[in-house]
Amino acid sequence: MNYGKELIIDMHDCDVKTFTRKSIKKFMVDLCDLIKMKREDLYFWDDYGVPEKYKQKENHTSGISAVQFILTSNIVIHTLDKTGNCYVDIFSCKPFNANTALKFTKNWFKGTVKQYKVFKRM
Q1: Whole-structure pTM over 0.90, yes or no?
Q2: Which residue from 32, 42, 85, 89 has the highest number of Cβ atoms inside 10 Å of its Cβ?
């Protein structure tokens, strides 16, 4: 039985100006519209409002993480401000065009796709 698919994207050399809550929220809205997914709650995890001494300072932890729940699963993003890397996972039981989502994501963050993989969930 097919339980959907997951697109996993690793990008480098992204435009870090796209690594904001406002930009990521717009990305989620536009991506969901493009691949015809019904958006539910969106959650962010970052240093917004955190005192300077408690902010993440390591290359692999400084950035924004967001989860966009969709009716049929979720879209997760992790950005790394200091390296310009961005990691996106799109998982849905509802069919979607992975190539369309990949191209849109690459263009949005203006990065270089280092690797991507589409998994069929069984």
Answers
A1: yes
A2: 85
